[in-house]
Amino acid sequence: MLKRVIVTGGAGFIGSHLCEKLVRENFEVLCIDNYFTGTRKNLSALIDKPIFEAMRHDITFPLYVETDQIYNLACPASPIHYQSDPVQTTKTSVHGSINMLGLAKRTNARILQASTSEVYGDPQVHPQIETYQGNVNPIGPRACYDEGKRCAETLFFDYHRQHNLVIKIGRIFNTFGPRMLPNDGRVVSNFIVQALTGSPISIYGDGSHTRSFCYVSDTVEALFLLMSSQNNFTGPVNIGNPSELSILELAELIIKKTGSSSKITHKKIPIDDPTRRKPNISLAKEKLGWIPKVGLEEGLEKTIKYFKSIL
Length: 311
Ligand code: NAD
Ligand code: UDP
Prior knowledge:
The protein has a domain at 4-176 and 215-240 and 279-292: 3-Layer(aba) Sandwich (Rossmann fold). 38% of the residues lie in helices and 17% in strands. It is built from nine helices and 13 strands. It has a seven-stranded parallel beta sheet with strand order 3-2-1-4-5-6-11, sandwiched between helices. It has a two-stranded parallel ribbon with strand order 7-10. A two-stranded parallel ribbon has the order 8-13. The longest helix is centred in the first third of the chain and has 22 residues, at 86-107. It is globular and about 55 Å long. The model has no long low-confidence stretch (mean pLDDT 97). The site of uridine-5'-diphosphate (UDP) has 15 residues, from helix 5 and strand 8. Residues 8-9, 11-15, 32-38, 58-60, 73-77, 92, 96, 114, 116, 172, 174-175 line the site of nicotinamide-adenine-dinucleotide.
């Protein structure tokens, strides 16, 4: 019998790539999505496959289906989207996780949480290692996302300790690639769209902030390996590409790669914007045998090609 797997948030950017991977691996995939930031277009390569099904559902409400595995990715991930209805964002991480954990408990399914590097907040330890407990402002505009994800990790560990659930927590660092929304405000999509349309490249602050960008196929591979890992490996485990660069360097690289004549402009830095971010991925290497394969330049080329095709 085929293994049945649920992907919440499966119509989103990472979720749709994950659904494609799981269908390729011959899983019976049920995508659960309320289409807040996801689209049915993202599922166009899957929709006529007999082993794929999509259901419109908001995970803040209970769900009664049968399954063997649950990947819990539902949650808006870009600051403009998660801050547009912050109460719903927290509900998605907290009520949504309780509903999905309850489903895992009833069906005896293993369950994976798409957590985030945002649990480290504005980190005082660099690079970030899983044992670092973070520096998050609990009352700022990013808190609905950061604290929601932190509470989701708490719930996962309590269900594990209290109900012996097999849980997996992946802390995903900035991921990019085709199917990012052109208007979701994330830095890679913003800069590429600005460069391709000849608009000014908007750097928030002086551009010295750093991030480390992982191409989506690498992130998806790590999530898949994490789900398949031994029962007693729960994580949390960092999933990201450790090659760190400043936002100014990213802007210059995208201008070069697109051959754009756009000029750089500086805007106000958002509140609580983390100043540095880079994952320590030793644990992922050791436990999952995973390291990212796609470099930033190669990933940007694929992503630029995608945006050229949709703009
Ligand atoms: P995305 O916004 O493209 O995908 C999220 C999906 O969840 C969308 O399809 C959206 O419609 C759906 N969704 C939101 N609220 C829902 C709800 N209440 N019920 C059902 N569906 C709901 O974002 P993404 O970049 O693909 O991120 C996927 C997951 O990975 C998120 O949980 C995010 O927090 C996590 N993550 C992403 C990144 C990144 O850089 N992309 C980094 C860290 C963590
Ligand atoms: N950023 C920027 N210009 C933009 C969008 C983002 O300078 O048009 C900066 C942002 O302030 C942050 C970094 O790029 O320092 C990454 O932002 P993003 O929203 O992509 O991800 P996150 O802050 O969640 O890591």
